[in-house]
Amino acid sequence: MTVPVAKKRVAILISGRGSNMVSLIEAARAPDYPAEIVLVLSNRPDAAGLARAQAAGIPARAVDHKAFPDRARFDAALQAELDAAGIELIVLAGFMRILTDAFVEAWSGRMINIHPSLLPLFKGTHTHERALEAGMRLHGCTVHYVVPELDAGPIVAQAAVPVLPGDDADSLAARVIVQEHRLYPQAVALIASGGAVLDGGRVRFAERARAAEDALLSL
């Protein structure tokens, strides 16, 4: 008799409409998906993604960063919510706040982000505009572990798209977001199942995850 493996308890942090959040929620509905989305938090009470999470039956709450005098106290409020829900993995999905080094280090190896570029290229914002200005022929997205330095954590997976003649930032962004919606659920599953772990500043893939790793990198 096979003993069912406990699913990793995941919180998704958002600031806006939560399109990547929705792709993760949909993926997690599969019985064999190794993660369970148990909480959605936003730093913006008006974030459209909160209503979308609630409609999917997931507890969703706002922790308004404007209600706190500094980042440390905001992070402490986030931590209280995460502790109360027994969270094991944090997934940032369009979360537009810089977290304190202490918070990031406390969640080392247990917090990931998706960034709309092929890191280490184009860290920060306005990635699509910058890719076009640089004359890139390939662009894409990256799932990485979060470290104190912005967009500098060890890479879990990437997906590339072509930059086409006549592209503007909107058309390029639309092509990248399709890949984000494919890549993020697969990367979360890989991490939640133990197939990818942060080890000494690098991502170590378990032997049983090699095929999954190859599939992610070939997207």
Automatic annotation (TrEMBL):
Answer whether the UniProt record assigns the keyword Transferase to this protein. yes
Which keywords does UniProt give here?
A: Purine biosynthesis, Transferase
- Associated pathway: Purine metabolism; IMP biosynthesis via de novo pathway; N(2)-formyl-N(1)-(5-phospho-D-ribosyl)glycinamide from N(1)-(5-phospho-D-ribosyl)glycinamide (10-formyl THF route): step 1/1
What Enzyme Commission number(s) apply to this enzyme?
Answer: 2.1.2.2
Record: residues binding N(1)-(5-phospho-beta-D-ribosyl)glycinamide: G18, S19, N20
Reaction catalysed by this enzyme: N(1)-(5-phospho-beta-D-ribosyl)glycinamide + (6R)-10-formyltetrahydrofolate = N(2)-formyl-N(1)-(5-phospho-beta-D-ribosyl)glycinamide + (6S)-5,6,7,8-tetrahydrofolate + H(+)
* Active-site residues, as the UniProt record annotates them: H115 (proton donor)
A Pfam cross-reference name: Formyl_trans_N
Task: Specify the enzyme's EC class, one word.
Answer: transferase
Entry binding sites for (6R)-10-formyltetrahydrofolate = R71, M96, R97, I98, L99, N113
Q: Where is the Formyl transferase N-terminal domain?
A: 8-188
Residue(s) at site: Raises pKa of active site His: D151
User: Which molecular function GO terms apply here?
Assistant: phosphoribosylglycinamide formyltransferase activity
* Database matches in PANTHER family: PHOSPHORIBOSYLGLYCINAMIDE FORMYLTRANSFERASE
Protein role: Catalyzes the transfer of a formyl group from 10-formyltetrahydrofolate to 5-phospho-ribosyl-glycinamide (GAR), producing 5-phospho-ribosyl-N-formylglycinamide (FGAR) and tetrahydrofolate.
To which protein family does this belong? Belongs to the GART family.
The entry's protein name is Phosphoribosylglycinamide formyltransferase
Which organism's genome codes for this protein? Methylorubrum zatmanii
